[in-house]
Design a protein that fits this description.
mainly alpha, 16 helices, 80% helix
Length: 291
């Protein structure tokens, strides 16, 4: 490992000398060869750093290669190496990994390669979902990804990204935004015989967001969604929302808890569901609060 790292550093030093050396005869025969030699040395160094598991150094080297390609107008090679740099940085510096991918995205969008740009926006979003999560940035990149996918008529991929936006909007208490997305994706699902059943979950999530805003809101939403999709109106999910809305109005926290537990014992609630349900429950005054 140490030997690979030492070889990599020697190669980088040699490559930098190649780039700064003055060409023979005042550049009469051009200096393209020295840049190609330097790029080859940087590439070998980057792979040696990977073998030594020096991910930060590998990322910096791939980024250096990308910068040189970009300077020389080789945009495809520049973008590829920014992506390679990002892959290495993911293991050591997530923020720099995202920054390198953004540089690649800028190149791909300028070249009109929107599908690959969309996929890289997804990857950046996933980075921001990780340690030290930044949900606002994750939402932004999922939104960007969805916009690019939709522009390329990849509506299924766009909706998957928008569902992530809705989930994080709900968690960040941006309920109106989440509701709008869930309703839109549910409407799209109803137009497909294969996807129709999934509309029930999206309407359920939208209803929970309504319940976080206001119990009466939730009741009206259930009626509206039931008209759009009768199977939802008759579902256990719709009945749960109706029951919970009533317990909120009656300020009956015990009935709220009992209804939630009964539902969960049959149909397991997901983390998103429980997060919103706990918020609603906290809005119900308990006896101590009324004293």
């Amino acid at each position: 490992m140490a030997d690979n790292e030492a070889k990599a550093r020697d190669l980088i030093a040699e490559a930098e000398k190649k780039l700064t050396a003055k060409p023979l005869f005042g550049g009469l025969f051009g200096g393209g060869g020295k840049t190609e030699d330097a790029l080859e040395m940087f590439s070998r160094a980057a792979n040696l750093f990977k073998m030594a598991k020096k991910w930060g150094d590998a990322g910096k080297t791939f980024s250096r290669i990308a910068d040189l390609h970009k300077k020389n107008g080789n945009t495809h090679d520049a973008a590829t190496n920014y992506v390679d740099a990002s892959t290495c940085f993911k293991k050591s510096d997530p923020k720099e990994a995202a920054a390198c991918l953004q540089r690649a995205i800028d190149i791909y969008t300028e070249a009109g390669r929107f599908t690959i740009a969309a996929k890289h926006h997804q990857t950046i979003a996933e980075i921001f979902e990780g340690e030290g999560a930044d949900l606002d940035k994750a939402m932004h990149h999922y939104q960007q990804s969805a916009d690019f996918f939709r522009g390329e008529e990849s509506n299924s991929s766009a909706n998957k990204c928008m569902l992530k936006v809705a989930e994080y909007a709900g968690k960040l208490e941006q309920y109106e935004k989440a509701i709008g997305i869930y309703e839109k994706v549910a409407g799209d699902a109803l137009e497909s015989s294969l996807l129709k059943y999934s509309a029930k979950e999206y309407f359920f999530r939208a209803s929970l967001c309504h319940l976080c805003i206001d119990a009466l809101n939730a009741q009206h939403a259930i009626e509206k969604y039931g008209e759009l999709y009768p199977a939802f109106g008759d579902s256990r999910e719709a009945k749960l929302i109706k029951t919970l809305a009533k317990t909120v109005e009656e300020q009956d926290v015990e009935a709220f808890t009992a209804a939630t537990q009964e539902f969960d014992s049959i149909s397991r609630l997901e983390a998103f569901h429980t997060t919103l349900l706990l918020r609603v429950k906290k809005q119900i005054p308990v006896e101590d609060d009324l004293c």
